[in-house]
Design a protein that fits this description.
The chain is α+β, with helices and mostly antiparallel strands. The chain has three domains: about 100 residues, 2-Layer Sandwich (Ribosomal Protein S5, domain 2); about 35 residues, no CATH class; about 140 residues, no CATH class. It has a four-stranded mixed sheet with strand order 1-2-4-3. A two-stranded antiparallel sheet has the order 5-6. The longest helix has about 70 residues. It is elongated, with a radius of gyration of 34 Å. It starts with 6 loop residues before the first strand and ends with a helix. The mean pLDDT is about 85.
């Protein structure tokens, strides 16, 4: 089953202490790229949130948005006395070592990080589990969206694979009748060019055989057919990444280009153009496969 790299999930939860809105969005990317936009009260949980994403996402540019509205919030703040005691102790130790006896100003103390705790921070610490659980559920929702998009993507790619296989059979059919026609054309050209020259028939046939060998596309058709069978298997295999499919499409494109360069038949050339168009469309869609 194909998984798309694009997905979206959103969950809103109402708790006694706060209201929570979580959004997780995923876009195409060669690697896993996680971007967070968090409420200031849960910045300290950023690593936990990134770990949740990494557990379930392999590739894609993932955006995590968390917005919190605290209920009954007021502007009161609380002094973190333990942090202040630790800071004062370290300052005293520093004064002893440096032998500097200066008074510490209040302005300096106010610069100590996290010296004051807002009520918002207290609430977020108490409800960390609820917040992370909500984020985890939103990631699951985004992954479900990826699966739904993947089914649509898979269906569309398989329809194009079917068209390519149909065109491949057409080329096989046309090339089998084209060989005898090519031989006639070469003989006619030779007769026109060297009609008055006496050539050894064996040498003439050798030269014609060399020309025909250069125009032979049986090997390319055989490899092309093998690549298409493998592509069909890849699309149904949930363990195959979009990168692997893209590499195989490059090989398919190489065989198609070789066929187009070898053949002069106008019908085959037109069919080659149709195949290349469908291969390119699949390649673009493969960029969105996980």
């Amino acid at each position: 089953m194909v998984l798309s790299m694009t997905g979206y999930g959103r969950i809103e939860e109402n708790h006694s202490a706060f209201d929570l809105i979580v959004e997780v969005k995923s876009l195409n990317s060669r690697y896993l790229d996680i971007n967070t936009k968090l409420h200031e009260s849960i910045y300290k949980y950023e690593n936990d949130i990134i770990s949740l994403v990494r557990k379930k996402c392999i590739r894609g540019k993932v955006y995590v948005l968390v917005n919190i509205s605290y209920n009954n919030y007021n502007s009161s703040i609380k002094l973190d006395k333990n942090r202040l005691k630790i800071a004062m102790k370290e300052i005293s130790e520093l004064k002893k070592i440096s032998k500097i006896d200066e008074d510490i100003s209040l302005e300096y103390l106010l610069r100590i990080p996290d010296l004051f705790q807002s009520k918002q921070t207290i609430y977020s610490i108490q409800n960390k589990k609820k917040i992370l659980q909500c984020i985890d559920k939103t990631i699951d929702k985004m992954m479900t969206h990826r699966q739904k998009d993947g089914k649509v993507l898979q269906k569309d790619i398989l329809s194009k694979v079917k068209k390519i296989n149909r065109d491949l059979k057409k080329i096989v059919r046309l090339s089998s009748s084209n060989s005898s026609q090519e031989l006639k054309n070469i003989k006619n050209k030779l007769n026109k060019l060297i009609s008055n020259v006496d050539l050894d028939n064996n040498r003439l046939y050798q030269e014609v055989a060399l020309i025909m060998e250069k125009k032979d596309i049986n090997e390319e058709l055989s490899r092309f057919e093998g690549h298409m069978k493998l592509l069909h298997e890849y699309i149904h295999d949930k363990n195959v990444s979009g990168k692997k499919i893209n590499f195989l499409l490059q090989e398919i494109n190489r065989e198609v280009n070789t066929i187009g360069s070898k053949i002069d038949n106008i019908s085959i050339k037109h069919t080659v153009v149709d195949i290349k168009n469908n291969v390119e469309q699949i390649r673009e869609q493969a960029q969105n496969i996980l």
